[in-house]
Amino acid sequence: MNIIAILSMAILGALFALGLAFAHKTLKVDQDERVEKVDDLLPGADCGACGYAGCEAMAKAIVEGKIKPTKCPVADEETYEKIADLMDISLQEAAGENVAVVLCRGGKEEAKSAGEYKGIETCEAANLVGTGGKVCSYGCLGFGDCVDVCDFEAIRMNENRLPEVIEENCTACGACVEACPRDLIEIHPVERSLFVWCKSHDDGATARQACEVACIACTLCAKLCDGVEMEDDLAVVNHEKTDTCDPGVEKCPTDAIAYK
Amino acid sequence: MQLLSRLATFPGGTHPPEYKHQTASKKSTRIPLPEKLFLSLQQHTGAAAKPLVGKGDEVLRGQMIAEAESNISASLHAPASGTVNKIGKHPLPDGTTGDCIIIEVDQDNEDEKFYSPFQKIDSISSEQIYRRVREAGVVGLGGGAFPSHVKLSPPEETNIDTVILNGCECESFLTSDHRTMLERPKAVVNGLRLIMKAVGAEQGIIGVEDNKPDAVEELDDSLPESENLTVQAVEDKYPQGVENMLIYALTGRKMGASLLPADVGCVVNNVSTAAAISDAVLRGKPLIERIITVAGPAVKSAANYTVPIGTPFEHLFEHCGLIDETKLILDGGAMMGTSQSDLSVPTVKATGGIVALNQQHVNERQEHPCIRCARCVSKCPQKLVPTRLARLVKARRYDEAKDLHVQNCLECGVCSYVCPSNIPLVHWLRVGKEKVCP
Ligand code: SF4
Ligand code: SF4
Ligand code: SF4
């Protein structure tokens, strides 16, 4: 009697085990095994300071290349190195990250005001009313929608009413890029430093009237370097090509093209 | 019975002060031409027109200078003879900077190049009306600037029985439509008959707000003996001139938010548009000028001017004068006008008036929290819940705003106007619309 009970239990157990083994083989979600390893290396504090739900989520994001290991404020240099090794990248690459860049330097000092703006104080709302306060219809509106949407306190308004990116905090999540109604924010590798800090397509004379630091389409930089191209009265940097030549930023009459 | 009958209107709406007395009795006059005219290639709904002239070309008054390449677009004609100075960017009244054909006006050249006029309405085919209106670049002059020929060829499956002319002019300060009805009633009526012919409608109604009894009378006198053509006074209430409000008031037909006037058998045009259509067909004159009201407490001598399209605002103010304490200049009336920061902007086809206000007339009262009085809700002609929508948009909850139909907002400004807490509701709704249907 006992025997039957034991046997049937054993058979049942074996059947379930088989089922489990089968499920493990066929229903397994393929997870990059590096996720687990990175997770092991991370401090395991699950503090969420990186912006992810916990260390495991952060590990997954690291492996997917969405965030750099250095974004973990708890881990130390050694850990960063170990993770970089595991990911088979150099620590420079691991640290070399993308950050947001705000491509307008016409603050309240430099850009001419078009009159008093009395509407709702968000960029989105100001953008719907004429030129939104400044003469330039391309430039920063200065109400900080980008600041509002940033979850990492990585962007703040300075005294000149221009947003400033705090690169250490920036995770390149792109929320500010989305929020800016003037499309002034771009995500670039942190080491990239040459930019045209203006997005105005106004012709030279109009742009000069509107703002002291506007690109006035004089084409000097474009003539000096293949990596700068003129697009509809605005110089645009082609970052693939600027390694080979020097656009002579010191010659730019308005400092519109400059290093970061 | 007579005692009980009330003037036709729509539910909701409000009645802001009209301020029309300043110009309502001022006959439209002409002023000397400006030195330069700035003709935006994009002054209508739809695709920009393609320039047909280049720098240095001589143009004649009435000559086509830019052509509509697609159906929803409108051609442009030189409003005065002269030389093309350049084609370049220039600030526009909507706050953008856009491509303009800039004409240096030759003050002495009186030559014109109009189309050949048709003689009799009865002998013109609907196809001919359509083609002429299209080549003459006529657009809706009530503010929408929708190409008129498109309205003249409604989709096959619709059955238009009624043409409505909108003579409400419910915006404060503006009297340009009023003047058109008084000074050119025949042109308005002919325009109505031409539109009816083009769309094959049997009935024509001109709806005029009852604050303009003189216009009702003038038009009545100009109507041919026919039961199918009527002038009807509607209640003087804002925004009575919106298509669906007017259709409801005059025919009782309800237009859902997603419907077009054609879906309820109607075509609605502004009275000034009708006059322009009549000019195009019966005089061969393209849309090159219109009546514009320049008024407001900051204007020294308010007036109605017949001005060529593309006249800089500053040129108009040179003639009527602005007081030094001018606070706000609007393209359009006080409810829906857009504020201007640069007076070199030119008038466009849809500019019916320019209003200049002083400090006293600009509301700078402080915003307070919503007190849930629901005035905005009861007055919204579109039956929206502005207070809720504004809160959703503020919280960036755009999906919910969409579910509550933020996209149906007319931007009429009634909600902001009636709100005792001075909440800029219509501005929030505009942000929401922009997010939900850019
Ligand atoms: S969202 Fe754009 S316009 Fe607004 S403050 Fe930021 S950069 Fe300027
Ligand atoms: S919500 Fe829109 S349609 Fe309704 S009253 Fe306000 S502006 Fe007018
Ligand atoms: S009118 Fe103003 S105070 Fe009244 S419910 Fe609407 S938003 Fe609130």
Q: Any overview of this molecule?
A:
The complex is a heterodimer of chains A (260) and B (438). In chain A, the strands form four sheets. Chain A has a two-stranded antiparallel sheet. Chain A has a two-stranded antiparallel ribbon with strand order 2-3. Chain A has a two-stranded antiparallel ribbon with strand order 5-8. Chain A has three domains: 33-96, 3-methyladenine DNA Glycosylase II, Chain A, domain 3 (Orthogonal Bundle), CATH 1.10.15.40; 97-188, Alpha-Beta Plaits (2-Layer Sandwich), CATH 3.30.70.20; 192-260, Alpha-Beta Plaits (2-Layer Sandwich). The radius of gyration of chain A is 27 Å and the shape is elongated. Chain A is built from ten helices and eight strands. In chain A, strand 6 (228-230) and strand 7 (235-237) form a beta hairpin. In chain A, helix 2 (33-41) crosses helix 3 (55-63). Chain A is of the alpha+beta class. Chain A has helices at residues 2-26, 33-41, 55-63, 77-86, 91-95, 123-126, 145-149, 175-179, 204-210, 220-224; strands spanning 98-102, 155-157, 163-165, 185-189, 194-196, 228-230, 235-237, 257-259. Chain A starts with a helix and ends with a strand. Chain B has 438 residues and is an alpha/beta fold. In chain B, the strands form four sheets. A five-stranded mixed β-sheet of chain B has the order 13-12-16-14-15, with helices on both faces. Chain B has a four-stranded antiparallel β-sheet with strand order 1-7-6-3, with no helix packed on it. Chain B has a four-stranded parallel β-sheet with strand order 10-9-8-11, sandwiched between helices. In chain B, strand 6 (82-91) and strand 7 form a beta hairpin. In chain B, helix 5 (185-199) packs across helix 8. Chain B starts with 20 loop residues before the first helix and ends with a helix. The A-B interface holds A 114-115, 118-120, 122, 124-125, 128-132, 135, 137, 202-203, 206 and B 88-89, 94-97, 338-342, 364, 424, 427-428, 430-431, 434-435. The complex binds iron/sulfur cluster (3 copies). The site of one iron/sulfur cluster has 15 residues of chain A, from helix 7.
